[in-house]
Structure formats: structure tokens, C-alpha cells
Give the backbone structure.
Amino acid sequence: MGKIAAVTGNEAVANALRQANPDVCSLYPITPQTDIVQRFASYVSNGQVDTELINAESEHSSMSAAIGASAAGGRVVTATSSQGLALMWEMLHIASATNLPIIMPLVNRALSAPLNIHGDHSDGMGARDTGWIQLWSENAQEAYDNTVQAFRIGEHKDLRLPVMVCMDGFIISHSIERIEYLEDKQVKDFIGEFVNVNPLLDLEHPKSYGPLILTDLYMEFKRLQHEIMGRVKKVVLDVAEDFYKLSGRRYGLFESYRLEDAEIGMVVMNSAAGTSKDVVDAFRDKGIKAGLLKPRLFRPFPYTEIADALKHLKAVCVMDRADSYGGYGPMFMEISSALYQVTGNGSGVAKPKLINKIYGLGGRDYMPEQAEQVFTELDAIAKGAPVKLVKDYIGVRE
Amino acid sequence: MKKWKELVPGAVVLEAGSSEKFKTGSWRSFRPRWIEENCIQCLFCWLYCPDMAVKVVEGKMTGFDYDFCKGCGVCARECPGKKGQKAIVMEPEGK
């Protein structure tokens, strides 16, 4: 077993990047991600990695440089948050549609305006349709483990896709937690040597990246992109199995917490899941069968697996730390779509009643009392109370 | 026409020099005409052409490749000609 340390989420992730020893790291600092690239720059200066560091003049440029370096044939990392991810937006699509396995920690932060540096999921949810694989992490340990696994997933020969590893800004990125590191050699062996595919720097075999493709073939390429995303779930599970053998820590497409015999459940991602699990335990102690589902792989979204895990419940609350003004929260839309396809669950209940709560925007504290409020409402709905408002806000002053 | 299962992921073109097959001259609304008697073979046209549409054989300008010339007129503009007489003039297509 590797070293046990008390570190921040950022330090844990920076160490995972160090252990992966990428060929190129393009970077532009932004709160709360800065700490990752600052540490990584030190690793480069100290000779702890063989990486070429590119200080770009913006996030648009840092993603562009990452794309160029990845097409050239190297293992490439970068990292960002919030406005930085928003500025990368057009390049994110190019990275994924060009099948470039760039690994990027995303330290989740609210989007302007109003200007806010704290943690919510608006940035990552805004990148939902960019074609990147998204892994979400509850704590520093998961952020570290997901980053290590991201290299194996993204670089897999059947995928070659970029991966975003998400963790909550400040709540995880800047809080000190106990984590278990893997040894450098263990990580090196686990992710293996980088194998490039169609590298531009293979001068014996000249090729072109980024062609113009119009009405004749564009749609076929988009269809192919969806097909490749469809292979991700299996790779994620295979890599998780190998990771379990190495570390003893189990990962799946999502985490189920006391869900099997539950009657009411909450779907919640990242750091708020930890707080909510405590409240699940408290409700269990009171004799109320509460459970929780924490998505890990948000893109591609495991619709059937999540529907199977939730379909026996009487009432479910989907928690969103991002909003779609004039729409339901992004996670609610996925869960709702997943459950709509369920036909009969054998328990006599048609489908779970669904509600959506928007919480924690701009880093607003998510407290156990908010989870209690949610489970109390779910308990009443499960016992026959009507759903008054499908989408509502919690932790906001009325 | 290829089906989606036959495509190279990432839309990478593995065949070198394949742009030669994609003829782009049809965009042209003005075409350059070469007047050989005014040409001093300075090759400015070849140097300035943003495509590769000036055909040079054994170091000499021999005419234009109209499959790729887009009629931008840079060659005609740069042409010094002979004694004030241009060796390249632009004429409307279809004339």
C-alpha cells in the first residue's frame, strides 16, 4: 500500500498527474484550480517529471495547445475551472471529435455573473454535450483515484477520448483530507506506456488533422462519435475492476448507498453526497427506509443501470448544484429520462415520484438540515402526499 | 459514399496529399490570363500565389492550374510585366 497523507484535493490530483508523467502539460491558472498547475510546474522545475510545460495566454490557448500536442502523439494533461472551461468551449468539441485522449481535472466552480469563485457544477454541466467523458468525485481520494483511472479510460484503444475529472471547488480542492496514495511505480504500471494513434510527428506517414467535412459525411462522423461514447461504460467498469485489485477501492458507474431495500432516495453528486449519506443513516435509525445514489460517470450517462437502481423506489429527489433557468436541473433531466423508459417494476408502483432541488449554487453551504428537509418531503410523498412543486430551491432565503 | 462504420475515428486523413483530389477552382469569378510576350519570368506570380496554381516547368512560368486557381488576383497585382505591359490580367469568368 502507498503512503497515507493529509492533503488537499488539489494536491492529491497534482500528484496523480505527476505519477502519470505526461509528455506535455499546457496550462493557464484559474481559481480554484491554480494550485494544481502551480504544483505541477514545481514538479517540472524539480525534474520530477519529463513533461514539457506550456504557459498559455488563455484557456482557449491552453486547450488548443493540448489538442496540438495530443495530435502530435503525446500524453497530454491540462486543468481548469469555471470561466476557463467556458473559454475552452469550442476547443473541447474539437478535442473529443478528433479522438484526442487529453486528461483534464476540472475543479468545479460557479459561472459569472455575478462573479463567484466557489464550488458549484455549472461549469461541468455546461460541458455536458462536448463529447468528453466526465467522472465526478466526492472527495480527495475519489478525485485522485479517478484521475489515475482517467488515463487508462481515455487512452483505451477502443475510445481515445478526452476525460474531465470533476471535484468541488474549495470544498474538496482546498480542504485537507486523509488519502491513500498509490506508489509511483504502481501508477506507472497501472496506466502503462502511452501508445499514440496516428501521430502527426510520424513523418514517415504524413496525415491531416481537422479536415473540412460538409453535408456528405459530417453526420456519419457524428454518428460514429456517439458509437464510441457507447463503449465507455464497459471500459470504465473494466478499469475499475483492475483498480480495485490494485488499491482495494471499488468504483462503478455510480455508487449506491443503502438503496437496495430503500423506499425513498436521493440522487446527489460530488461532495454533497457525503453529507447526505450521514442523513440517510439518521433516517434509517428513525425507521425510514432512505437511500442514496451518487453518479460517477455523468457522460456518457448510464441510463439503464441508474433506472434499474432507482425504479423500485416510491419517491426520489434529484439534487442539482447547477441550474437551467426556465428548465429543470441538468441531473433531473437525465434521471427523469432514464426512469421514463422503465416499464413495470413488479412492486405494484408504476414509477417513483420525482422532485428536483437546486442547492449549493455559488458555493452556498449544503447542510445536513437541507438533506433532512428533502428526506422528510420524500417520506410524505411516499406516503401519498401530492408533489406540490417539481423543481424548487433549498438553502435560499425566501 | 462511405457509411459511418467505415470512417476513421477523429476524421484523421491518413492519405498524404489528398487535397489534390478536392478541386476548388469552381469558386472563381475572375480568371487570370497569361500574356507570354510581356512575361519576364520573374516568378513573382508563383511566389505570391496563395495556392499552388501557377504551373512552373523547369524554372519557367507556363500558365495556370484552373482546377485550383480561385481568381484572387494577387498574381496580376504583383506582376511587374515588361515596359509597363502586364503579363497577367484578370478577366471575368464566362467572358
